[in-house]
Amino acid sequence: MDRDRRRLTRRSPAGALAWVLAAGVPLAFLSVFFLWPVATMVARGFLPDGVLDLGGISEVLSRRRTWRVIGITVGQSLTATAVALLLGLPGAYVLYRCRFRGRRLVRGFVTVPFVLPTVVVGVAFRSLLVETGPLGFLGIDGTFAAVVAALVFFNYALVVRTVGALWERLDPRAEEAARSLGASPWRAFRTVTLPALAPAVVSAGAVVFLFCATSFGVVLTMGGLRYGTIETEVWVQTTQFLDLRAAAVLSVLQLVVVGAALLLASRARRRYDHSLHLRADRSATRPLRLRGPGRPGPDAAAAAVTAVVVLGLLVLPLAHLLAGSLRTPEGWGLGNFRRLSTTGGTNALTVTAWEAALNSLRAAVDATVIAVIVGTLVALVVSRRPRSPGGRRALGVLDAVFMLPLGVSAVTVGFGFLITLDSPPLDLRGSALIVPIAQAVVAVPLVVRTVLPVLRAIDPRLREAAAVLGASPWRVLATVDGPFLVRGLGLAVGFAFAVSLGEFGATSFLSRPESPTLPVVIFRLIGRPGAENYGMALAASVVLATLTAGVMMLAERLRGDRMGTW
């Protein structure tokens, strides 16, 4: 029987060629539109006259400005990661371990900030913290604390979803046994529950650090150059000083820092996936208990922290952004939204905000199609489980390679496009496709990480059984993998579309003056003086946030049971 199974599951030459092509097409896309531009950008810094010159490394590293930027990057990222974990653990417990009316709605709302465009997040917090804002009395506008708060706002959902998905499946009997032996609730959590959650906590922390270290729009809008990071410094050195050597050195430094986070995230993710597979598929939730006999219930503290975070950190900035968009010099009304059909005060824009919104939608649609096709092919290949150690290592390398766009500055990618894709047969500088392709490069890792857990959840015995019964490899793929893949594509499309819609780093370099995207228009309006331009920026941010939130809410309804994490 085993011999028959091996004979039937052995791939034909045509099937093997198909899998080679499935891996080759994404690799060709990554090579042409990521590795080549980034390598060329770095080479411009280290090979200025065609000769290797490493003197720039010592020169850049000898600057106090460089070490200040590195310190701010690491400090902001570590602080924001720690705060996000501390606030996210109670949220994961309440939203995934407990049942209450409206839980699905709160889960969906908590996810929205993660996919909001970074420029919108920056505008929302600036409007809240400026001197005339409701929190202006704190005096933290443009400070380290303001940037950290915005980064936590952006990544809170990542912690809640990642930790909550595992916490939901933990067997409660271990903690109950510790409590019955006299352990306090805190001691039972610290000695029993927290060690079981460690893979999820480490995985979430590594990814949050990764996103914080590579944040561009939030830092540029909130902290400016005073609290600039490596990402924003690459932008400054490239656009203002035209110092490609410094930009190249900083890009390599960022890749080293983020590469370490990617390595940690990869190892933590493997432990995390293993922990999820060991847990029962059924949910181990119970009703939320806020009251006990004459005292607060055991869930009261976690629910209180979650309520404060959701209302104070998530709802307040978005609500004030909406309120600000309705406030005009003439009073309350829709004047700012009506002005979106103009080019702003003193012709601040080259096109209207509505035209920019259409540009964003068109680019996001094209980028989503490209990212979903490339990302799905990668996920299908990486989800295979070859018997040979060499095959497993090759798939692991392929998976890691397609995470690289998360670790390289989007500014580096955008500028790399300009200096590489400028001559036949790939002269794209005047093409409308250059922006969607750059956005797809950024979105592909998210598609892979969204679809891959769904495909890895398939029991390989299902494929073997179908092959033993005579199904061809194509039919096995269609009938076994297909239904699972469809379940994962809903959220993958939502993530790809939302990320492309709000992408700012590479798009700020590549969008043409006559066809800017909405994030670029918002950033330009913020930089122009006048209440009229600022009001338009708030209104445009509301439009962009509404589009993004609508897409993600729809994607949440289409997600499968295994789509609880990023």
Automatic annotation (TrEMBL):
Residues spanning the membrane: 12-36, 69-96, 108-129, 135-159, 196-224, 244-265, 300-323, 363-382, 394-421, 433-455, 484-506, 534-555
PANTHER family with a match to the protein in the record: INNER MEMBRANE ABC TRANSPORTER PERMEASE PROTEIN YDCV
Topology term for the membrane: Multi-pass membrane protein
One example of a Gene Ontology biological process annotation: transmembrane transport
Gene Ontology CC terms: plasma membrane
Alphabetized UniProt keyword annotations: Cell inner membrane, Cell membrane, Membrane, Transmembrane, Transmembrane helix, Transport
All residue ranges annotated as the ABC transmembrane type-1 domain in the record: 70-265, 357-555
Protein name: Thiamine transport system permease protein
Family of this protein: Belongs to the binding-protein-dependent transport system permease family.
InterPro entries attached to this UniProt entry: MetI-like, MetI-like_sf
Pfam assignment, any one: BPD_transp_1
Location of the protein in the cell: Cell inner membrane; Cell membrane
Organism: Georgenia satyanarayanai
Primary location recorded for the protein, binned into one broad class: membrane
